[in-house]
């Protein structure tokens, strides 16, 4: 009788260990996908209106971040706004975890991860005058901005350094962006928005 109970106990323990193994494996695969390939997140705030709305879900592709590619003009990206500190591998693990939690609870998203649009690339000279952005001497035609004119003027041009991009929110009069934190290192561009819903 004791052998029978022992076999049942061994079977239960083996079943529990199999479940734990499967869960750990699934979490590991999900983590790799979120760090290197694709990640869900949510918009928090009004800085990208009317293009993106507060609470809207986003699918972000991560490959450009992994490869340290400089995003193109007009691409909507997520950034680490802590531009004056170096990012480490630990940030690349922590950030997807917090964004994954934020899909279910938008209050969980850290205030350091912002969604913005790329306006300037390395070597560009940007000016802010007459309610508009000028890049390399030409006024940008930006039909995606919320307001016809922005309430921001800067007396001196901004030169975007090598290895950096300049980002702005589409809701120019209600956005914290590169006008205030400065250009963003390319390794702080965490991915580009592929889909919003």
Automatic annotation (TrEMBL):
Keyword Protease (UniProt): yes
E.C. number(s) listed in UniProt: 3.4.21.89
Pfam families linked: Peptidase_S26
Keywords for the protein's UniProt record, in alphabetical order: Hydrolase, Membrane, Protease, Transmembrane, Transmembrane helix
Places the protein is found: Cell membrane; Membrane
Topology term for the membrane: Single-pass type II membrane protein
Catalytic activity: Cleavage of hydrophobic, N-terminal signal or leader sequences from secreted and periplasmic proteins
InterPro entries for this protein: LexA/Signal_pep-like_sf (IPR036286), Pept_S26A_signal_pept_1 (IPR000223), Pept_S26A_signal_pept_1_CS (IPR019758), Pept_S26A_signal_pept_1_Lys-AS (IPR019757), Peptidase_S26 (IPR019533)
Transmembrane spans: 20-38
Disulfide bond listed as a keyword: no
Peptidase S26 domain ranges (all copies): 17-194
CDD domains referenced in this protein's UniProt entry, alphabetically: S26_SPase_I (cd06530)
Domain of life: Bacteria
Record SUPFAM superfamilies: LexA/Signal peptidase
Family, per entry: Belongs to the peptidase S26 family.
Name recorded for this polypeptide: Signal peptidase I
Lineage: Bacteria, Bacillati, Bacillota, Negativicutes, Veillonellales
Encoding gene per record: lepB
């Amino acid at each position: 009788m004791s052998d029978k109970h022992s076999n049942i106990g061994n079977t239960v323990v083996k079943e529990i260990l199999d479940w734990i193994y499967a869960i750990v494996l699934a979490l590991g695969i999900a983590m790799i996908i979120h760090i290197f390939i694709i990640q869900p997140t949510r918009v928090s705030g009004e800085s990208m209106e009317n293009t993106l709305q507060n609470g809207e879900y986003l699918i972000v592709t991560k490959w450009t971040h992994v490869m340290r590619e400089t995003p193109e003009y007009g691409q909507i990206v997520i950034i680490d706004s802590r531009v004056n500190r170096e990012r480490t591998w630990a940030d690349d693990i922590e950030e997807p975890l917090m964004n994954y939690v934020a899909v279910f609870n938008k209050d969980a998203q850290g205030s350091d991860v912002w969604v913005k649009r790329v306006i300037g690339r390395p070597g560009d000279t940007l000016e802010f005058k007459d309610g508009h952005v000028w890049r390399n001497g030409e006024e940008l035609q930006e039909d995606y901005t919320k307001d016809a004119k922005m309430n921001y003027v800067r007396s001196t041009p901004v030169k975007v350094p090598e290895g950096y991009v300049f980002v702005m929110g589409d809701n120019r009069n209600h956005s914290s962006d590169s006008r205030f934190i400065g250009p963003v290192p390319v390794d702080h561009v965490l991915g580009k928005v592929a889909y919003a819903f």
